[in-house]
Design brief:
Layout (H helix, E strand, L loop, with lengths): L10 H54 L11 E9 L2 E6 L16 E5 L11 H12 L5 E9 L2 E8 L11 E2 L2 E2 L3 E2 L16 E3 L3 E2 L1
Parallel strand pairs: 8-10
Antiparallel strand pairs: 1-2, 1-4, 2-3, 4-5, 5-9, 6-7
Helix pairs in contact: 1-2
Length: 207
């Protein structure tokens, strides 16, 4: 009876295969990581754009009801929204830049829970705005949002899911962004120097 010889891979062949896999991994992994990171930034920018649209839609409705923002070029303020475990909190830096009617006024702050977003009679304008945003984004349970208002509209906004560090380094001025681009972490657009993702609207470009 003839024996059939069994031949396996030599050590050199195994090492060559491992080397090839290593080269492919060195090429593909950074590409895939970069693609994943960019997709997260795009998603954050999209959510920031949605929030900005909601604010502008609310301000337009408020104008029609005569409790909107004053249209003077000197009517400028900032707003800040935090979301912690589903609880939404709004702060307006200067409520005096808004008009007041006999029924609805701005008091500079608002609070609502994710499950309690129905606009009710007697709500301040701040509460109504916050409930409008919270109702449209029920999936958001953790966020920090800051926006700039001037002459009746939101002209710049940024947001992040990182709430342990308030993001205060983005360059707002009275007209929105103080520049058309930003250095970010010096490598990636939408990644701040602390290393977390920030969505912007309008998009604050890397530069």
């Amino acid at each position: 009876m003839r024996k059939i010889s069994k031949k396996g891979f030599t050590l050199v062949e195994v090492l060559v295969v491992i080397a090839i896999i290593g080269v492919l991994a060195a090429i593909l992994v950074p590409t895939l990581v970069g693609y994943t990171l960019r997709s997260k930034v795009v998603s954050a920018d999209s959510t920031a754009s949605d929030v900005r649209k909601l604010i502008n839609n609310f301000l337009t409705e408020a104008d029609a009801a005569r409790y909107g923002m004053k249209l003077s070029q000197t009517a400028v303020c900032e707003g800040e929204i935090t979301v912690q475990n589903g609880t939404w909190t709004l702060t307006i830096s200067d409520p005096t830049v808004f008009n007041f009617n006999n029924y609805i006024s701005w008091d500079g702050s608002g609070v609502c829970a994710s499950g309690n977003t129905e606009h009710a009679a007697g709500d301040s304008a701040d509460d109504a705005l916050l409930k409008k945003i919270a109702a449209s984004l029920p999936e958001v349970e953790q966020a920090y949002i800051k926006f700039n208002l001037k002459s009746g509209s939101c002209n710049a906004l940024y947001m992040t899911t990182e709430t342990s560090i308030a993001v205060t380094m983005l360059p707002f001025n009275a007209d929105g962004w103080s520049a058309d681009n930003y250095s970010w972490d010096t490598v990636n657009q939408g990644i701040c120097t602390e290393g977390f993702i920030v969505g912007t609207s309008p998009e604050l470009l890397f530069g």
